[in-house]
């Protein structure tokens, strides 16, 4: 790299996550951005207040829609994802509902992939239809089924990749091309990959969502959601989904926690990914394990797609034992270091049983149809020394 190109290139992901949008000199030299614990903001003049309410002046009015600590967070995540702007909300589900209720009207249609986080699946299949919004399901790993599901009323398509809980990977560019040809916009949940490993907007998606509770927070101590996309679209989400419909404001302190998490996100995701690869190899080679689903394995069905659109494979693994659900439950109870808990992306390694926990909202028939078997376990590989994780899993497996 020449000196000129080095000067002109965009700073790296970690550099932007640590520095973007903040100058200590403007805040009395404070290295860490301050937490603005205020619900309302004073106007210098009555005219200034009127201009703010009319959108003729930039600034802050009331804490439900915007806060200076929140602004720094939103600028940083928008930059990392390659979007024009972002919105922070109170949870991942608030990010989903706030977006959908801002962009969809009664009579519109949304097409979703059939494998989603359990509460997201319930929201789409049980809540949205109550408000006159039609919801269709398709298998997005088979583009022809998406093509068949799209119609003149389809406004959005929505999916996760990798998907929760079985980690199936969907070709973002292929879905975007089909959806856009039908006049629909593409919304992708990028929680599992984070912008460190995958940036869906670069592959044609229009909106990216995160449960920032997971990897972006990274410490299991915050609930939050993020939406990234075009400024015009997200202004609708801020004014409608956040301000009027949900009121799901993210507190300034939780914005501070996410800013803390962003600073180490690249380092943590690299460690999660490298450890998960070793754990996946162990599981794949163990006699008690019937199947392993991890995008980094050559045996993974969508391995080539994952290599094409991801720069790494993440910290989530799904697997099933020969003894099915009974043996899976027994394994969970014999683990000592690995913690039995839902959620993911924390420093701790977590294991859970989707059929009876995060995806219990699916009927047994739906789980079978959508590849969520009763024996499936989901493992979120943490930041402990990987040899300790491997030892705990191997000991528990050998004892079955």
UniProtKB/TrEMBL annotation:
CDD domains recorded: CGS_like (cd00614)
Cofactor(s) this protein cannot do without: pyridoxal 5'-phosphate
Gene Ontology CC, one term: cytoplasm
Reaction equations catalysed: L-methionine + H2O = methanethiol + 2-oxobutanoate + NH4(+)
GO MF, one example: pyridoxal phosphate binding
Keywords for the protein's UniProt record, in alphabetical order: Lyase, Plasmid, Pyridoxal phosphate
Cross-referenced InterPro entries: Cys/Met-Metab_PyrdxlP-dep_enz, Cys_met_metab_PP, L-Met_gamma_lys, PyrdxlP-dep_Trfase, PyrdxlP-dep_Trfase_major, PyrdxlP-dep_Trfase_small
Enzyme Commission number, as recorded: 4.4.1.11
Domain of life: Bacteria
Matches recorded under NCBIfam families: met_gam_lyase
Protein name per Swiss-Prot or TrEMBL: L-methionine gamma-lyase
Species name: Paracoccus aminophilus JCM 7686
Taxonomic lineage: Bacteria, Pseudomonadati, Pseudomonadota, Alphaproteobacteria, Rhodobacterales
């Amino acid at each position: 790299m020449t000196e000129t190109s080095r000067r002109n290139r965009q700073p790296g992901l970690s550099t932007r996550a640590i520095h973007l949008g903040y100058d200590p000199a403007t805040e009395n030299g404070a290295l860490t951005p301050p937490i603005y614990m205020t619900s309302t903001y004073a106007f210098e003049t009555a005219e200034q207040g009127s201009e703010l309410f009319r959108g003729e002046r930039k600034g802050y009015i009331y804490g439900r829609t915007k806060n200076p600590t929140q602004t720094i967070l939103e600028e940083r995540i928008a930059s990392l994802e390659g979007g024009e702007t972002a919105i922070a909300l109170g949870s991942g589900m608030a990010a989903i509902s706030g977006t959908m209720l801002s962009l969809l009207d009664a009579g519109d249609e949304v097409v979703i992939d059939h494998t989603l986080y359990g509460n997201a699946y319930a929201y789409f299949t049980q809540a949205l239809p109550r408000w006159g919004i039609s919801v269709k399901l398709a298998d997005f790993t088979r583009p022809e089924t998406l093509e068949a599901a799209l119609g003149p009323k389809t406004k959005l398509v929505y999916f996760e990749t990798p998907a929760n809980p079985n980690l199936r990977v969907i070709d973002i560019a292929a879905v975007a091309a089909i959806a856009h040809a039908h006049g629909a916009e593409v919304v992708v949940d990028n929680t599992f990959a984070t912008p460190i490993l995958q940036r869906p907007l670069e592959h044609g998606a229009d909106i990216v969502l995160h449960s920032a509770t997971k990897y972006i927070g990274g410490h299991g101590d915050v609930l939050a959601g993020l939406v990234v996309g075009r400024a015009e679209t997200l202004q609708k989400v801020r004014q409608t989904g956040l301000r009027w419909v949900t009121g799901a404001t993210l507190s300034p302190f939780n914005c501070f926690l996410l800013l803390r998490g962003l600073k180490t996100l690249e380092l943590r995701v690299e460690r999660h990914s490298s450890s998960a690869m070793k754990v996946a190899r162990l599981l794949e080679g163990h006699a008690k394990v019937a199947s392993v689903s991890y995008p980094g394995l050559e045996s993974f069905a969508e391995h080539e797609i994952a290599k094409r659109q991801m720069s790494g494979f993440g910290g989530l693994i799904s697997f099933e034992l020969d003894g099915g659900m009974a043996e899976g439950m027994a394994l969970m109870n014999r683990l000592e270091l690995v913690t039995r808990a839902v959620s993911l992306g924390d420093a701790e390694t977590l294991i859970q049983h989707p059929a009876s926990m995060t995806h219990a909202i699916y009927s047994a028939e739906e789980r079978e149809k959508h590849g969520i078997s009763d024996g499936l376990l989901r493992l979120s590989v943490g930041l402990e020394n990987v040899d300790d994780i491997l030892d705990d899993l191997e000991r528990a497996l050998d004892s079955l």
